[in-house]
Specification:
alpha+beta, three-stranded antiparallel β-sheet, about 25% strand
């Protein structure tokens, strides 16, 4: 009986370790919700598994100029990460999904077209593309981009920080 107990304990230990390894490898710590390719974490971030970009789970909340948006991203620290930045137009366009929609909080009665795991107050989001006095934003109402003065408040522009996911 004593001789057969040793191999059984080894098998049980290996099974437990293997289970721990596979569970840790294939689950996301702090995972809160999933929506197709998007995984929301309880630390305020959303991972896009298609682009491998990590997004803030919500925009900055207030109307903001481009320079303020750049400063906001450079100093954003959600999830313990310090490498947040303004997204490119291409990165913002990759979030746009005409098949998804939720109501804007701007009071304009328009729907935003992206995963509900990323909450935007309004559909106008600043991009990193900028000139000397103007910059571009992406419009989540219709999937288009536009150029405007960096200091313009009339378009209800917001910021959505992004970083490389891994």
């Amino acid at each position: 009986m004593k001789k057969s107990l040793g191999p059984i304990l080894v098998i049980v230990a290996v099974a437990i370790l293997a289970g721990t390894f596979f569970t840790a490898k294939f689950s996301t710590a702090g995972e809160k919700a999933r929506d197709g390719r998007f995984i929301a974490d309880d630390n305020g971030t959303v991972l896009d598994t298609k682009t491998n970009l990590m997004w803030a789970a919500k925009d900055g909340g207030n109307f903001i100029t481009w320079l303020e948006a750049k400063y906001y991203c450079d100093n954003y620290r959600v999830g313990g990460y310090t490498d947040w930045r303004l997204p490119t137009l291409k990165e913002l366009a990759a979030l746009y999904d005409e098949t998804k929609s939720y109501a804007s909080d701007c009071g304009d009665g328009k729907d935003l077209h992206l995963t509900e795991l990323i909450r935007l107050r309004c559909g106008w989001i600043w991009s990193a593309k900028a000139g000397l006095s103007d910059a571009y934003y992406f419009l989540f109402y219709d999937g288009t981009d536009h150029r405007v003065s960096m200091t313009d408040f009339s378009y209800n522009l917001h910021v959505l920080p992004v970083r490389s996911g891994k």
